[in-house]
Every structure is written in C-alpha cells, then in structure tokens.
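CHAIN AND CONFORMATION:

***
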Amino acid sequence: MTRTSLFYGVLIGLAVLPIHASQGNDMEKVIPREVLFGNPDKSSVRVSPAGDRISYLAPLNGVMNVWAAPADRPSEAVAVTKDENRGIRIYFWAYTNEHIIYLQDLEGDENWQVHAVHIKTKEDKILTPFEEILDAEGNPIKLPNGKKLRPRAEIQEVSHKFTDEILIGLNNRNPQYHDVYRLNILTGDMELLQKNDEYLAFLSDDDYKIRFAFKTTPEGGNDIFKPAGEDGWEIFDKIPMEDMLTTSPMGFDKEGDSLYMIDSRGRNTAALFSLDLQTGDKKLIYEDPKADLSGVMMHPTEKTVEAASSNYTRVTWKILDPAIQSDMDYLNSLNDGEMYVISRSLDDKIWVASYVVDDGPVRYYLYDRQKKEAQFLFTNREDLEDYSLSKMHPVVIQSRDGLNLICYLTLPYWKDEDNDGRPGEPLPMVLDVHGGPWGRDSWGYNSTHQWLSNRGYAVLSVNFRGSTGLGKDFINAGNLEWAGKMHDDLIDAVNWTIQNGIADKGKIAIMGGSYGGYATLVGMTFTPDVFSCGVDIVGPSNIITLFETIPPYWAPIMNVFTSRVGDHRTEEGRKFLKSRSPLTFVDRIKKPLLIGQGANDPRVKQSESDQIVKSMQEKNIPVIYVLYPDEGHGFARPENRLSFFAVTDLFLAEHLGGRSEPIGNDFEGSKITVPTGRDHLPALKESLEKFEQ
C-alpha cells in the first residue's frame, strides 16, 4: 500500500415507513430508502495477515465500526472500534496481526488522523493527535469559517517486514506538503524520514526506502526524481501532460530491482509494464487495446503479478500466473457476477472473494486454497433479497463527433419484461452524472440506479469524454471542455434515449455529485430546455472560486487542473473559466433546482452553493437548498444521507411524476437544515416543522 497509489486515486481520483404494501405484485413494492442507502449489514471484509481472523465494517449502535472474528467462527464477531459519530470507512490490518489501523476525519473535513486499536483489549490510540498547523509567526492557521486548519495524515507504506511500524505522510509543518515519517503503532513514536517542501508525493518500497519523488510540471505533466546523494534528487523520468492521468509507477518486485508501471506513453490505453532499474529494459505484462489497466492481482510477499484486468463495458480478467488458474476457475464457478479477490493472508493460503451483480447484494466468501473450499460468509445487504431489482444494461452511444460513450441504462424491471433495455413506452428519466470528472461509471449494483428505477424512472449514467479507464485519447478529449463537449456528450446520450423510445422528452432530470453537481448546474444554465429539473450535490458553481479555495495540500497538483480545465491565474484564463461557470448564467435557470451541500466540504466549499443560491434569490428564481453542518464532500452519516434522498424522492416525484416514499422518520438523527426553499415542497415543509419542534 503506497501513498502514490492513494494520490492517483484522488485524481481519478460520495425506521422507514414503506408505502404501497405489496399485494402479490412486485411492481407495487416500493423499496424503502433505508434498505438502499442506510448502513450496509457488513462491508470491506479483510482477512488478517496470519489468516486466523476476519474483519469487516458493520453498524454498532447505528454507526459503522470494525468487527473481528475467528476466521472459522465468523458468528463470534465483536466490535473492536467504538466510533459514535461518522463511522469508519478506511481501515486495514497491521502486520502485528493484533491491531487494526483506521483513518478518521472531523465532520467531513478530510483531515485524517491515524488510529491503531488492539483487537483484544480494544485500546484505541490516536497516532497523529495533531490539531493545528502553525504559520511562520507560530499562530494557528485558520480557515475562512474561523476554524483552525487541521493537519492531514496519509498512509505512505505498510510493509510485512516491519510489523510494528508504518510510513505516513503528514502536513503538520507545511500545509501544502506531506513530510514522510516512520511511525511505531505501539508507542506512537515518529521518526522523520523525508522533509518535504517541494514534492507532490513519494514512492517507497517494502524496506521503507524512499525510491522516487514526484513533481507536477507547469504544463500539467509529472517529473519523477530518484535519490542522488545527500538529500538530493535527480530526474529519473518525465511524464507528459497527455499521459499524466494514465501513467504512474505502482510498486516494486520482491527484490526491489524492477519497477511496475502503468504506462500509456507511445500508446492510447494504459498497459502494465515492468522496468528493470539496472538495465532499463521494459517488459509488457498486460494490455487491452480498448481500455486501460484497471486491476492487478499480486502475490502478497513474492510481488509477482498473477492477473490483471481492464474495464470497457464490463470488467475482464486475464490470468498471468498458472499457479492461480485452478483457484480462479473454482471461485468463478461458485456464483454469478464479477468475482474479485479482495484480501489475502500473508502466506497466501486464505483469500476473501466478493461477487458483484447488478441486481442484488455483494456476496462474500472465505476461501481456503489448500482445501480448495470456499465458505459463504454473508451478503452486504440482506434486506435487498426481499425485493425484485432491475438489471443494468451497458450501452455504447456515439457522440456527435464520433466518440464511443460507454453508458449504463437501468429501467424499472416491470417496464422491461423481456430484459432488452427497451421499455414498452417512453419513461421519465434521470441522467445520473458521475463526479471527478476523472472517474467513471461501471457495471454492477448501484443503489442510486435501483432507487430511481424502483420509483418508475429510467436511469442513465454516461462516461462522457474526460472519464477515465477508456484510454488517454478519451481523457484528453475532455481537456478545456467543461461545459463544452463534455456536456455535449451528456446531451447526445439523452437524445439517444429519446430517439430510441426510452425517455419521455418532457420529463428528464439531471442529477450528480461533485463534478456531477457542476454538470447539473450546467444543464440548468447552458441547456435549460432539456431538463425538467436538477439535483446538484456539492457541485461547484464558479470554477474560478473553486480553484481559489482548494485545500492547501492540493496546491502541488494545481497545474494538472489548470492545464485540463483552464487557468484562473491569467486574465485570459479567468475570462474563459467565467464563460464555463454556471454562476455566470444564473438568469437562464427556469426549471426547479435542488442543491445539497456539506458545510465542511474541503474540496467544493460551502461558498460554491451559497453564491448560486444567493444569485438565484436576488433574481427571484426558486431553489431548494439543503445544508448539513456536520458533512463534507458528500453525505457520510446515514442519517444525513437518508434525509437528503428523502427530499430528493419528493422533489423528483413532484417534477417527473414518479412515485415516492413519504419522508416518515428519515429526518431523525439528521442535522438537515433548509436555509431556503422549503415552501416549494409542501411535504418537505410539513416534515421539517415536525422535525424542528
């Protein structure tokens, strides 16, 4: 596990009362939001390094915590953490085999602290207990809202060679850059390995040696440096801007003599290579001419690549090491859907496998490689099995300029009885736009698709240009195309559904989070006649102010944003970005809009939603604004998530004509506020008045 992989993930990298009780007809059975968006029963299953225990996330008093059990007696699981607020989302086993390491932030601020908890004593230590960053004068740095800027810890490396220690990155000295520390998880002692006032990230090996450093170029590319003597660095490799999002080192072989790289240079799709660091010889391991490398199976200690995958319309795996062929054949025979090996013991004798389908919960198995036996553990959402769910159809839609747009369409199953992806008559539709934008939609179970199709809507997700996984040409086709050709792709896909009798032209909504929220605002302003309504979740309204308020630790990658979106640092760039910002064209909004925002969002600040709401109010344009004081970039607490989707349920039913579930008790435990617009939904106003009493 390396901080470099986490960094690239950032770039590419958010008691219910059912209605219409079934009377033998599943079409009338409304799936409660709690079943779809409440806490899962169990998720994130891991096997301990020794293979003698399993762990997973599950609710404790309604809050997601880590549970652990003997591997052969999973029913004896007990909670080993006791989070009482946001729930734990990121955790892993330490190589002591007796500790769980997890990360937690404060009310969505994404300034993670590292915790270590002993699975038997339940002693929980905050290993990075720092609460403030000081400026040059020794004063705490404060955010615009007056709160202190808290340091952010990141996991740099976890190696089986050092059971008591991990490497972390920490920006408590300089908020823009992470120093690298060697951290003892038993004592909390920290040793500075690499002071950093310059580099974006580092790549380390299993011996906890820092092997490479990364720095973005003014053009938005990435220079890779290697150590050169006393605290010095020299250039090792250069990655052009065009390949920045599809080329990166990902780790080393067992001896540390070869570097594994994802690389798209000299080609379109990102392939997997090994690079001999002594001779410079480069060997191709895996490639797919239609899609980028998307996954790798690697032996936990031998560091040999055993299998690799890519994802065009569906994930496909290629076995590269015959030693695992019989294991994979056996596991693939157990269940339908896409199978993933998600955790392995250090001796590689015990695996955890998951099975993903589009119309049911994830199924988890514990597999003993020596016995060639797999034990079913549980599903992630058992209540889903009480309902009929809809199938997700991959479809390839051509853009107006000839690009293939990989899309996913879900229809109410009772409107698509022959399962051909075509309803008997056009349906109201929701266009669900993914965030990033450097991310992608994929096939599989999707709670939003199931919720909306259950309400009677067609649901379409589009991998517009700029989406990842489909080659660098497709990503780079989105450069400088926010609110331009990226939005044209969405419109082209919508028009395809209309032309093929899928969507009712007069009843189409647009919805999404982060970039998807921005796309919603673009839809409301740039193409105001296409959509009947919009739901914007933590979406930026002004790209200039978005860039001016980024978290300090994003400053080292600013050139990536400016090269691909536009440069707010120049007069010409600001003029361009203003022309691509929905805030500039608020007066064009003429259809209902619902906005959801977290007050502590470090990426898309509350001011992004505040300013467009204020502008709409000044122009007497109706808007419903839902604000959560204890959330960040998306809604992590299930109580908040349920309350927002309850509002959205009513909002879409009002403007698209689908069915909905009453709000019922879905505001309980939530910190929901509605600063403006409650009068636009009478049921919302009534529920809020009861909730606020």
